[in-house]
UniProtKB/TrEMBL annotation:
It is an enzyme of class 2 (transferase). InterPro entries: P-loop_NTPase (IPR027417), Therm_gnt_kin (IPR006001). SUPFAM superfamilies: P-loop containing nucleoside triphosphate hydrolases. It comes from Epichloe bromicola. The gene is g638. Pathway: Carbohydrate acid metabolism; D-gluconate degradation. This is Gluconokinase. The keyword Kinase applies. Belongs to the gluconokinase GntK/GntV family. Coiled coil: none annotated.
Amino acid sequence: MLSYDSAIPNGQDKAARVPLPPAGARSMSSSASVAAPVNGQAQGQRQHHLWLVTGPAGCGKTTVAEYLANALDIPYIEGDLYHPPANIDKMSAGIPLTDSDRWDWLTELRKQSNSRINNGADGVVVACSALKLKYRDVIRVAAYYDRTILVHFIFLHASQELLLQRVAQRKGHYMGANMVKSQFDILERPREDEIDVITIDASQGADEVKDDALAKVNAVLAADP
């Protein structure tokens, strides 16, 4: 089994005033050219990869994100650590977060990611749920603040029943099993035109999920010129 991360849904970023391109051109995929115009990059420019490990509570985001960060030797950001106390209080009480609750939180995750890359990291791995398209779009704005950044999402999916079982087994965590349903209620699975999303079956064993994720990440990196 995967260890159970706290997959909290993210929020729309009110600071994201930069206009996004159409959905089909908005992002990078493992098969797309690493110098695609979505990020305005010239051929040969050094690139930095921002990996977002996403999905509902219990899918194993922390487990996979930490594994990828160690394997790639790049910084890891645990999204839950950046929630303000008010958000944690709401979740501890079983109250789902609203978009406005997540707004500044997701902005901070984006800023933290850009900061680490600006300070010399080759890339960053972030664990956060990113359950809605507009939440993912907020993170995609990172590439507009730094044209060397390529944003990728690793979506871990499993059935609601399985994730409920996993979260119910957690001890002493503010994210209870009752929150899993609320996350599935708002979940917007990645669309076909979100070509920067890698999908992983999180119902597998922990080792299989980690190996699958790393293999697909390495395939993306292998395309880097």
